[in-house]
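FAQ

Q: What does a record look like?
A: Structure on top, sequence underneath. For example:
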């Protein structure tokens, strides 16, 4: 029997309270694969609970030891839970998701548990990172991946008296000076593919996200910069092919994205605020109702 003496300031509590583990386990995210012919394979990452005091979270995806913030999941409001759609999940390799929790002052409260998933797909998809609603399925032409090049920037130095030089170089770059040939499955997709590069009234960075299955010898998630995409239409069936010459680059800032589901979409689904409130039991349930995505447009 343990006795706690609260009446003596000098008393000491010598027993050990063992909760089973010094590490408190918080719920890992629930991951749901979404797949259709419009936007391609993607995942919905839902966090239902956090450590007390959590105000915002930053969601991270780890693939092959490389951790990257999930687009749209940077300092995401998290009171009552949070959900993010990852349109850049790779195909055929494990992807692990977890979130860092922050209080209202921006102080870190630690990481949630992680959960991994492998999205199996034999297709290749191109999306505009800042507007994931622009997505087109393509075929990567095999000849365009026969020759791939990287660069380790630096110099070769010949010192006095040495018969061979010494290389002084930095970290190897990503793909550089590569020409990719992408064929559209449907000629009608050409307008959407063209829209990924912007237009007269909208500006996007000249960067697209290309996701390919493991049998294509490219990084599973490739951010590719091309300032002069070339469109070629040929044959009786008007097949459309794009030639993209450029480099592997860093993705646009992950905090920037056009959300798939907007408040206007939710408002458009219900005639009154009371009807909207009656349709959901929690804010998280409302904010993850992606069946309403695009309803307001």
């Amino acid at each position: 029997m343990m006795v706690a003496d609260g009446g003596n300031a000098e008393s000491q509590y010598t027993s050990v309270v063992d909760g089973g583990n010094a590490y408190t386990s918080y719920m890992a995210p629930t991951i749901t694969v979404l797949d259709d012919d419009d936007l391609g394979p993607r995942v919905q990452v839902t966090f239902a609970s956090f450590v007390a005091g959590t105000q915002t979270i930053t969601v991270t995806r780890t693939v092959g030891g490389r951790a990257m913030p999930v687009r749209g999941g940077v300092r995401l409001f998290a009171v009552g839970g949070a959900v993010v759609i990852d349109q850049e999940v790779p195909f055929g390799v494990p992807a692990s998701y977890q979130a860092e929790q922050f209080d209202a002052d921006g102080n870190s409260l630690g990481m949630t548990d992680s959960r991994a998933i492998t999205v199996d797909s034999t297709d290749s998809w191109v999306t505009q990172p800042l507007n994931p609603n622009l997505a087109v399925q393509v075929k990567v032409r095999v000849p365009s991946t026969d020759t791939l090049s990287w660069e380790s920037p630096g110099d070769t130095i010949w010192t006095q008296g040495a018969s061979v030089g010494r290389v002084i170089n930095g970290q190897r770059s990503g793909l550089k000076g590569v020409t990719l040939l992408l064929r559209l499955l449907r000629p009608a997709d050409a307008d959407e593919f063209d829209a990924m590069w912007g237009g007269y009234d909208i500006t996007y960075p000249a960067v697209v996200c290309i996701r390919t299955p493991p049998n294509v010898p490219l990084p599973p998630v490739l951010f590719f910069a091309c300032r002069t995409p070339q469109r070629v239409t040929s044959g009786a069936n008007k097949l459309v092919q794009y030639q993209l010459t450029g480099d592997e680059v860093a993705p646009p800032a992950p905090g920037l994205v056009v959300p798939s589901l907007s408040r206007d979409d939710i408002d458009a689904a219900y005639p009154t605020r009371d009807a909207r409130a009656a349709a959901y039991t929690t804010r998280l349930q409302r904010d993850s109702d992606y069946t309403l995505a695009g309803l307001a447009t």
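Q: Is there anything notable about this one?
A: Confidence is low (pLDDT under 50) at residues 1-25.
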